[in-house]
Amino acid sequence: MKKDSFSVVQRTPQTKALPISTPDQVIDIQTAVNYYNNFYDTRIRDNASDLTRNVWFELTILENFVTRIYDTCNKKGIALTGLAFLFGADADKKRTVFIAPMTYDEKMGLERSFTLYNDKVVFLHGHLIDSYSTISNYKELSNKEESLILGEQGILSITDAVQLYNDYHDQKIAPIADQVDADTRIVYYRTGEFEHYLTYLNNCGKAYQMNITGINMVFSAYDKDASYGAYANHQILFFAPTATHNQHLAFSSFDAPMENLLDFSKTEWDTQPHTIKKSLVSSLFNHGSSGPPPYTWD
User: Fold this and answer.
1) Beta carbons of 286 and 32 less than 8 angstroms apart
2) Would you say 221 and 233 are in contact if contact means Cβ atoms under 8 Å apart?
3) Cα 30–34–40 angle (5° rounding)?
4) What digits encode the pLDDT tens for the residues 178-206?
5) Across the strands, what pairs with 235?
6) Which value, in Å, is the radius of gyration of the alpha carbons in the chain?
7) What is the spatial distance between Cα 281 and Cα 27, in angstroms, rounded to a whole number?
8) I need a surface site. Which of 26, 200, 233, 278 has the fewest CB within 10 A?
9) CA 88 to each of CA 160, 162, 243: distance values in angstroms, whole numbers, following the listed order
10) Where are the alpha helices (DSSP H) in 1-58?
């Protein structure tokens, strides 16, 4: 996503509302702003070596990828249980996200993200408190033909995905281990939840006459407050769609895209002079599950 300022013509929403089912995971704008700023305060302010705030995926590519996962799982008889958004660190030590399907592993008694290789299910990791992937020979698994892993630049091989996963531990988790106990490595949604969000975006795009181009997966963090329990200060994601106007620009509300933007060119989002209203139609998606914690997903 380009780091330009937001400058679009204000749209007037349709007066006649269309039947749009809002996902339970949609969050209000103020909550997203809080999570967004928490990430800056806890992950960037004192260490500016990686200023990455979000990863962008084209909407059509996401939709095609989800369809591919469903088709493949149906054909292979694999019980799909959800979609996993795994954190990685690339060769430049920058944060990234890659996506893979999940299924229940009876041997380990928990759900794990996986892909296919030589027509067999290959799990990408063991317990998420482990430092590295359980695939020891991952550098030999570079064929992408059957891959069910999607990264920023397209389909990833097991080699690429495991390298990102392992490097994330070294570059992002280990350095803050004294501040965050077993930080988040994955955010996941049960089957149908993320797909519902994609439908929500498409429906709202039609209702508000907006051309939704993609989704920003925004790095954020929960409060350090004790009310978050074991998740306090843990990294999470929220999702902000983008619309076309010269660039792929992110917005936070369908009925007030200018007033309630999340400006990713800033280190923090200044709520003034913007007015944040609970009644605005939020486009932001969060409230998935993440690990660790908890340490098992069954």
Assistant:
1) yes
2) yes
3) 145
4) 989 889 999 999 999 999 999 988 988 88
5) 221
6) 19
7) 10
8) 278
9) 10, 9, 26
10) 29-39
Predicted TM-score (pTM) of this structure:
0.86
pLDDT tens readout for residues 30-45: 788 888 889 999 999 8
- Residue 140 phi/psi, 5-degree rounding, is -90, -10
Structure tokens at 67: 């369809």
Listed in sequence order, the residues at least 6 apart from 41 whose beta carbon sits closer than 8 Å to its beta carbon are none
108-124 residue pLDDT tens: 999 999 999 999 999 99
**Per-residue model confidence as pLDDT tens digits over 55-102:** 999 999 999 999 999 999 999 999 999 999 999 999 999 999 999 999
Q: Among all chains, which residue has been given the structure tokens 């290959």?
A: 122
Residue 94 near residue 88 (C-beta atoms within 8 A)? no
Q: How far apart are CA 17 and CA 132, in angstroms?
A: 49
Q: How much of the chain exceeds pLDDT 70, in percent?
A: 77
Q: How far is CA 106 from CA 75, 79, 84, 109, 110, in A?
A: 20, 12, 18, 5, 7
Query: In 3D, which of 197, 192, 191, 184 has the Cα closest to residue 25?
Result: 197
Strand partners of residue 56: 216
User: 193-207 and 59-76 are packed helices; what angle lies between their axes, rounded to 10 degrees?
Assistant: 140
Number of residues that this document lists for the chain: 298
Q: Letter for the amino acid at 24?
A: D
Q: How far is CA 160 from CA 89, 116, 142, 167, in A?
A: 11, 14, 7, 11
DSSP state of 282: B
Q: What is the distance between the alpha carbons of residues 252 and 254, in angstroms, rounded to a whole number?
A: 7
